[in-house]
From TrEMBL:
Coiled coil: none
Superkingdom in the source lineage: Bacteria
Keyword Iron annotated: yes
Organism annotation: Nocardia rhizosphaerihabitans
UniProt keyword annotation of 4Fe-4S present: yes
The protein's name in its UniProt record: Precorrin-3B synthase
Length: 396
């Protein structure tokens, strides 16, 4: 498959002209933000955007209705959030958020830093499509469910499975080899994808792509292959770290974080991880301060209860952010949550067409303003898609 339209992934230096104004996407490799960076993003949202931070399904941050692109770039540059002007859109790296603190075989956050530096050091890798996703899974099988293009998953303390196009290649590498092998795989993908914006955006779009890239690496695959899971447990609520400290997993309803709430998160003065499940993990807290953080941030709307219906739902931008949308899906979904029409349990099996005020769905669900279903998570999800005649509930 080749493309007839250019890769239009937004960044900080190339904004997307959304229906409600210019949109900027800020890459956060490995999801890690220092408190000062959270504060800088809150400042940017208030001074230059619509007052909210949007968390994306790749653990990045979006700002909407950006009024001054140059001022935004300067602000982010000063905060260390724009370390490259040539490679900014290719720094899509997600890592297991709890790695090194709670469980897992290995701490992959160092790999995220090294991979980001390696990407930025090779001028050719600036040509990667902005859609390419790198995943660094510490062995718990969380970010591997995203089915990235290039990644590793720990299978031992110093052994990683190389994943390409969302599957295990059989190649095994050590931590010290992992970054170079992933960068070589990225170069192999560039060789295969064709030139310019007419080439494929994702490795899985190339027939036999994973096998062909593996051949270029000159490494013998092992016999056994990992079966990657489709689901995992969200890091929500009180999470005891292996070192006696506490992490707090906080869901962000529909991934929209008000700048005022972000300021309170920054004031905790601890490293924060943005997850690809539109939540935050605030790390390295003592127990007393952790209790205070929950008492302050829960009333502001952050979700610390793993049973909350907000953790079952996601939605595309919808109106007014997207001109293609048939309706304001986020308002309709919010009404469904507020009126207890998002239910626990297993999804239904029958497809149906119902008015917005009657949509009642159990289990994991994604609401979309049109058939494109932007932001749809991987794994088992019921689609709730706007049509001219109401929402189509499709437990596909
Ligand atoms: S799914 Fe459709 S309405 Fe929603 S953001 Fe994508 S294009 Fe727009």
């Amino acid at each position: 498959m080749t493309r007839s339209t250019p890769d239009s992934c937004p960044g900080v230096l190339r904004l997307h002209q959304a229906a409600d104004g210019p949109l900027a996407r800020i890459r956060v490799p490995g999801g890690r933000l220092e408190p000062e960076q959270v504060q800088a993003l809150a400042d940017a949202a208030v001074e230059l955007g619509n007052g909210h931070l949007e968390l994306t399904s790749r653990g990045n941050i979006q700002l909407r209705q950006v009024r001054d692109a140059a001022a935004l770039a300067d602000l982010l540059d000063a905060a260390g959030l724009l370390p490259s002007r040539t490679h900014e859109r290719v720094r899509n790296i997600v890592a297991s958020p709890l790695s090194g603190r709670v469980g897992g075989w290995a701490d992959v956050h160092g790999l995220a830093v090294g991979l980001d530096a390696g990407l930025r050091a090779d001028p050719r890798l600036a040509d990667l499509p902005g859609r390419v996703l790198f995943t660094l899974d510490d062995g718990r099988g969380d970010v591997s469910t995203l089915r990235g293009d290039i990644g590793v998953q720990a299978v031992g303390a110093d052994e990683f499975a190389l994943l390409l196009a969302g599957a295990d290649t059989g190649v095994r590498v050590t931590a010290s080899e992992a970054i170079d092998v992933m960068l070589d795989a990225a170069r192999g993908f560039l060789d295969l994808r064709g030139t310019g914006d007419d080439g494929q955006w994702r490795l899985h779009e190339i027939p036999g792509g994973a096998e062909r890239v593996t051949e270029t690496l000159d490494r013998s695959p092992a016999g056994d292959r990992l079966e990657l899971g489709a689901t995992h447990t969200l890091p929500i609520g009180w999470l005891d770290q292996d070192n006696g400290l506490v992490s707090l997993g906080a869901g962000v309803p529909l991934g929209t974080l008000p700048a005022r709430t972000a300021e309170f998160v920054a004031a905790v003065e601890r490293p924060v991880y943005v997850t690809p499940w539109r939540s935050l993990v605030i790390t390295d807290l003592d127990e007393g301060p952790a209790e205070t953080v929950v008492r302050v941030l829960a009333p502001m709307g952050l979700i610390f209860d793993a049973q909350s219906p907000w953790l079952q739902v996601s939605a595309c931008a919808g109106r007014p952010g997207c001109a293609k949308s048939l309706t304001d899906v986020r308002a309709d979904l919010t009404a469904a949550v507020d009126s207890d029409r998002v239910l626990p349990g297993e999804p239904g099996t029958a497809e149906m067409l119902v008015p917005a005020e009657d949509v009642t769905v159990a289990g994991r669900q994604h609401w979309s303003g049109c058939e494109r279903r932007c932001g749809r998570p991987t794994g088992p999800v019921t689609d709730v898609v706007a049509t001219p005649d109401g929402y189509r509930v499709d437990p596909s």
